[in-house]
Design brief:
The chain is built from twelve helices and ten strands. The chain is an alpha/beta fold. The chain has two domains: about 180 residues, Periplasmic binding protein-like II (D-Maltodextrin-Binding Protein, domain 2, 3-Layer(aba) Sandwich); about 100 residues, Periplasmic binding protein-like II (D-Maltodextrin-Binding Protein, domain 2, 3-Layer(aba) Sandwich). The strands form two sheets. A five-stranded mixed β-sheet has the order 2-1-3-10-4, sandwiched between helices. Helix 9 crosses helix 10. The longest helix has 17 residues. The protein starts with a strand and ends with a helix. The model has no long low-confidence stretch (mean pLDDT about 95). This is Substrate-binding domain-containing protein. InterPro entries: Ca3427-like_PBP2 (IPR054364). It comes from Snuella lapsa.
Length: about 280
């Protein structure tokens, strides 16, 4: 039985993977799928793909596009979540900053360079007409715990992260959310290393078949809102709102979406060039 290592963030978006793994659905189809959590997010997963520590990643669209253009030998094999990611703009509860416009020229906490929190800081800056060269500064904090430490100690001033995952910190009056910054593209895709695509196409097709069946049925799982709330320390009303806003995908990302995302990343000088869609995507 072929072993495939897959990585993703420990967030509610990925509960379908854990449920299918608990039920041994991949093993029943002849694939030994092993899940690896990446609390640091997309930047860490890009490195893990590059270093062949994982074979597949459930990863932010903007992060893997940049990584592939920068030389990461991977390709997108499917969209995972079709809807945008709702990034909250957070400050310490003790902060004097009241509005996103107050943050111009201050320091953003980012999990690492090339991560979603890094790249979306540029989108946020663009949305508020900031000077991308002079008004953006960064402090690397690795993960959510690092962000709490950095904002509390004033080593950084603000932090962009998925607003529902950070809601418990807002409820506990650790963070204060002063704005939102939705991603302007489908938020999560599934990417695989090129060598794995070449050598394990049947296994990858099986993985997609199983997870796609799971995501189609995900919202109809009995008490799924309670399961998510208990698993991820969320309030039930927040989970229900998140479920109402989130749509999974079972399709390959479209050429128009890739062109639009690349153009926006290029305009922000996050990527140095745009590439053909075939460079970014492989249809199994």
């Amino acid at each position: 039985m072929k072993q495939i290592n897959i990585g993703g963030v420990p967030e509610h978006f990925n509960l379908a993977w854990h449920l299918t793994l608990q039920d041994d659905l991949y093993k029943k189809e002849g694939v030994d799928l092993s899940w690896h959590d990446f609390p640091s997010g997309t930047g860490a997963m890009c490195n893990a793909l590059k270093e062949k520590k994982i074979d597949v990643a459930v990863i932010l669209t903007e992060g893997i596009i940049k990584a592939i253009i920068d030389g990461n030998q991977s390709k997108i094999i499917q969209t995972y979540v079709q809807t945008p990611l709702n990034w909250g703009v957070h400050v310490s509860n003790n902060s004097l900053y009241k509005e996103v416009s107050d943050l111009k020229g201050t320091k953003a906490a980012i999990s690492r360079y090339g991560s979603g929190s890094h790249l979306m800081s540029y989108i946020n800056a663009k949305n508020h007409d900031w000077d991308l060269k002079n008004d953006l500064k960064f402090e690397v904090i690795n993960d959510l715990d690092g962000a709490v430490a950095a904002l509390t100690s004033a080593k950084a001033d603000y932090f962009l992260w998925e607003k529902f995952m950070t809601k418990p910190l807002v409820d506990k009056v650790v963070f204060r959310r002063i704005g939102n910054c939705p991603s302007p593209w489908p938020c999560f895709v599934i990417a695989a290393r090129k060598d794995i695509i070449e050598s394990c196409t049947p296994e990858l097709k099986t993985i997609l078949k199983v997870i796609n069946q799971a995501t189609i049925q995900f919202k109809s799982i009995p008490n799924i809102d309670t399961i998510i709330a208990n698993t991820y320390d969320q309030q039930l009303e927040d989970v229900r709102e998140w479920l109402s806003l989130t749509e999974w995908s079972q399709e390959l990302i479209t050429e128009d979406t890739l062109k639009s995302a690349q153009q926006q990343l290029f305009d922000l000088k996050i990527i140095s060039k745009t590439v053909t869609c075939s460079t970014l995507v492989h249809e199994l």
